[in-house]
Fold this sequence. Notes:
Shape of chain B: globular
CATH architecture of the largest domain in chain A: 3-Layer(aba) Sandwich
CATH superfamily of the largest domain in chain A: P-loop containing nucleotide triphosphate hydrolases
Number of helices of chain B: 14
CATH architecture of chain B: Orthogonal Bundle
Low-confidence stretches of chain B: 1-5, 8-14
Number of strands of chain B: 4
Strand content of chain A: 15-25%
Mean pLDDT of chain B: 86
Oligomer: heterodimer
CATH class of the largest domain in chain A: Alpha Beta
Order of helices and strands of chain B: HHHHHHEHEEHHHHEHHH
CATH class of chain B: Mainly Alpha
Largest interface: A-B, 44 and 40 residues
Structural class of chain A: alpha/beta
Distance between the termini of chain A: 63 Å
Shape of chain A: globular
Number of strands of chain A: 20
Structural class of chain B: mainly alpha
Number of domains of chain A: 2
Mean pLDDT of chain A: 80
Largest sheet of chain B: 2 strands, antiparallel
Distance between the termini of chain B: 25 Å
Strand order of the largest sheet of chain A: 6-7-8-3-9-10
CATH topology of chain B: ABC transporter involved in vitamin B12 uptake, BtuC
CATH topology of the largest domain in chain A: Rossmann fold
Helix content of chain A: 25-40%
Number of domains of chain B: 1
Amino acid sequence: MKDGAVLEMRGICKFFPGVRALENVDFTLRQGEIHALMGENGAGKSTLIKVLTGVYPKDGGEVWLSDTPVHIKSPQDAQNKGIATVYQEITLCPNLTVAENMYIGRTKSPFTNWAKINRQADKLLDELGIPVSATEQLGNCSIAIQQMVAIARAVDMDCKVLILDEPTSSLDEQEVQKLFNLMRDLKAKGVGIIFVTHFLEQVYEVCDRITVLRDGKLVGEYIIEDLPRVQLVSKMLGKDFDDMAEIKSGSESENIDLNGTPVYQAINLTGTTGIKPFDFEIHKGEVNGFTGLLGSGRSESVRAIFGADRVTGGTVKIDGIPVKIRKPLDAMKHGISYLPEDRKLDGIVGDLSVRDNIILALQVMKGFFKPFSKAQAEAFADEYIKLLNIKTASQDTPIKSLSGGNQQKVILARWLLANPQYLILDEPTRGIDVGTKVEIQKLVLKLAAEGKSVTFISSEIDEMVRTCSRLIVMRDGKVVGELKGDDLNQNKIMATIAGGESK
Amino acid sequence: MSVNTNALERKLKRRASLTDTNLLLIITIIVFLVMYICAVVFLKKGFTKPQMFFNILNENASLLVLSCGMTLVMITGGIDISVGQVTCLVCMACAVHLQKVNDGLAQGNVLTSLLIALAIGLAFGIIQGALVAYLEFQPFIVTLAGLFFAKGMTTIVCSDRVPVKYEPFVKLAKTEVTIPFLGSVNKKGIYIPAYVEVGVIVAIAVVILLFCLLRWTKLGRNFYAVGGNNQSANMLGINVKLTKFLAHVLCGLCAGIGGYLFFLHACSGSPLHAQGAEMNAIASSIIGGTLLSGGVGNIVGTLFGVLSLSTIKNIVTSLGLEDAWWTNITVGVMLCIFLLVQSVILARKNKNKK
């Protein structure tokens, strides 16, 4: 046991059928430190955390909590032993109230004192500045609020170890800052915090120490000052890092004919999801993007384009010809593909194999009564697994056992297979590692060079700047600006998002 | 400045919108009241007398208890279709037992028959619960097996109708608990007090107990959490398996009690007793605002679900459509309309939040 360690994991092993998820991994967390756990998709971060919290039983190794060896049997057990966790996916019950979600499973008395629980919850929510009432049903709150509630729950537990598994992916800048302040407070109280994130800036902002995993193995543990960013990335990728800035060399937007007939054009498109009617067009070979804060209506806009939500008005023209797009299938038939934001909810069919998930969209368009032959399907799947470098044990592996980034790639493969003229990618890079992010960005630019049109949405502005040649800025459900050329830089985008009614 | 906006935001959000459970409960109660008042105003006949209402309770005390058990299981996202046949088995076992006591062939009294009923219900609950929770079998299939098993067992115990003549039991069954001030005056001007049977008191007690269980105890809230999302519930530190198990045990116990109440009302055992009671229980729970998908539901809603269901039946009968198929068709249509109303209202509510 090292000095001041609250948690020590030694030689942890975990196997899944066909995959060595963790092999002999050590991890030490000291009192009052924020410790980043970094690695690519499938490096084993989530698995390590799930072993620690008793979701998965470990296949080897030992866990020590403050000098005593422990065996963590279940999430309850982990909670009782002082390990509080906020998972990447929201793991609360949407049918219960906010207060209940904060206190369920950790009250001692067999009876529920509603008044007391609601009062305590309201007080805590107030302290943390979470704008929600304790008696509100959780399912009625936005994703960001739900995530904050999950954090509030974990924070309120009198824990020794706090695990935050990508808690920031659905929070906006302000909320992230709130969370960081909270983390610093807890750190001052001596709580050890394990922080998993893909945002390098965030790591360097709050963390003290970094442990890097790669392919289920430990790469090393570093003090933050000793590990510059570039080195961290190269350690995560296991190779020398080719700078992301290189991506957009040469493929500039000069060869796009902006005066020609747009591939897709919408005039006064009106949806039912609270966005104002908007005009939009995209040309052949163009990459453009919607940007704005969380909840500004950027996802709703592309959903309206795809017909995923009900469209109530407006004209849509494809190659200059007016068409009607009322449901996703219409859009698909007109060569539009959409990669949804929430891959768990809208994208993957968890129990189907990787292969079936890849051919799904093409199959739908072809009609269910004309199935592909097995050989055909296998050929398609093989091609895209290679093309996108999808890490899977085989084509027959159920998609749910893949890591998040690889699931995302499978969905991308699905839409690429449908050979769309116009591809909409809503947050394709959320929750996936830097290496895959770069791969996806490169792919987007390659597609554009091949003459496809792409609409790209991402919360990371620098990513948008790198990939898009035109940006549509949204605020509160309204299009507030369009930036291209020299205006396309971080400062200008920020200014437009923030607004200031500079009309 | 930001503090101010936050405070404002909080004030706006302070009035939390209704939870799905409460919303569905309110719909159920309103539908029942509208239906009953319409019946009183337009049909008159018996509906104007309070005794009509109490008769609904007398007829359905057993169904009420079965439905309450069903609601618990449905809240956890499961289902139990064995309760009807368990009721039938309980009736038969108790009837045979009390007849033997009456004929001097066996020791026992009313209490032992009650214990038999509870033991049968518990046994079914425990076995089915263990299979569903710990071996993770589909609740539908497990309880389907239970249904067939109970059906078979009933005929093994006795294949004929067994009337009960055991004196103390018959006396208990015929006991009428009068309700003060709610009687009516008959044609001859004699005041007839309103009454309920003993079973109704028991059923109401079960309703109150289970309501408290769901509302104020940890276990009750765990039922909702497990039904809402059992993965999350597990991560929140709830023992999901134990919770599911206990839901089935309680449902089994309710089947035992409900079975005994049926027995008390019918005073006999028969392989044809309580046929389809499980379906009525499911229908009542659903009308009462329990979602088959789990996580949403309320015992008070179930109470009104049972009342609505039987009021519909009474209305159909008093319209002169005596044939059984008319009631069935009406119940079928009502159930559909009800689900439609529920989903429309829930959808509207969810749209408003954006």
